[in-house]
Amino acid sequence: MSAGDREELISICDAKIEEYLDENGLGVWEGRYLSEPVPGNIRFEVLRRAGKRCELCGVAEGDSRYEDRLPLHVDHIVPRSKGGSNEIENLQVLCRACNIGKGNRDDTDFRSSPSDH
């Protein structure tokens, strides 16, 4: 990709971001903070319930063999961007890699997934 192509692509992306922010009445950083973070006591309970393991792949907190998959994240089953809440029933534990792979495109509840962990 040439430098000119790269600059053109960046301009297109910037325009799309600006359009989205304008359409939704958001400032540059407001879209990232549409709701409150998961409170610490709820985060603790979700991690405890999951046994401090990813509920998809089973990697455990502190397992040095999988440092690239850590830390563990408290994930919204129904993403906040799609109306999900911080209620404990809507939260599960995923490792960094599984959570990034899931993104906000999926509302799969991995808490009941059969696994060998």
Walk me through what this model shows.
The N and C termini lie far apart (44 Å). The protein has helices at 3-23, 40-49, 96-102, and strands at 72-76, 91-95. The longest helix has 21 residues, at 3-23. The protein is extended, with a radius of gyration of 18 Å. The chain contains three helices and two strands, in the order H-H-E-E-H. The protein folds into two domains: 1-34, no CATH class; 37-117, no CATH class. A two-stranded antiparallel sheet has the order 1-2. It is of the alpha+beta class.
Helix/strand layout:
Blueprint: H1 3-23, H2 40-49, E1 72-76, E2 91-95, H3 96-102
Antiparallel strand pairs: 1-2
List its salient traits.
117 residues, alpha+beta, 2 domains, two-stranded antiparallel sheet, 3 helices, 2 strands, 32% helix
